Amino acid sequence: MQPTDIRDPAILIRTLADFRYAMRRFYQFSEKAALSAGLQPRQYQLLLQVAAAPEHTTVTISYVADRLGLKHNSTVELVDRSEKEGLVARSEDSSDRRRTILRVTRKGSQLLSKLAGQHAEELNDAAPRLIDALEHIRRHARREAQ
């Protein structure tokens, strides 16, 4: 995608549509890959957030709820299902007994590793389209700010 005039609103709109389409295709891929691995898509997202939390971050239900954009009670249900399936484990926070700390189990880590490789391959294919669209949007935003 090579825009001819970054100031043209029609080109910007087309670029935004192309970007959303590329993202939607990636999300659809991700959902199908998770289901093929025996996970619900939200369980894969949960595993990603728990496993990838920055060092020294206490991974709690609240942390995961925020990262996933879910309500607290929906996150509790997701964690309950995932714990029953052996994907995550909970432990009591020794410094605040009201909080539960989450970690990914060995089973969860194995599934996550498998899916991460598949996702990296898919993103490698999608990256040129996404990067082009983002660069065009960034140039447009810079131009508008001037």
Which key features would you list for this structure?
68% helix, 2 strands, two-stranded antiparallel ribbon, 146 residues, Arc Repressor Mutant, subunit A, mainly alpha
The appropriate CATH architecture is Orthogonal Bundle
Beta-strand content estimate: 5-15%
Strand order of the largest sheet: 1-2
Rounded average pLDDT: 91
End-to-end distance: 24 Å
Order of helices and strands: HHHHEEH
How many beta-strand segments? 2
Domain count: the total is 1
Count of separate DSSP helical elements: 5
Low-confidence stretches: none
> How is the CATH topology named?
Arc Repressor Mutant, subunit A
**Helix-and-strand structural type:** mainly alpha
Which value, in Å, is the CA radius of gyration?
Answer: 19 Å
Shape descriptor:
elongated
Main beta sheet, described?
2 strands, antiparallel
> What share of residues is helical?
55-70%
CATH class: Mainly Alpha
Question: What is the H level of CATH, i.e. the homologous superfamily?
Answer: Winged helix-like DNA-binding domain superfamily/Winged helix DNA-binding domain
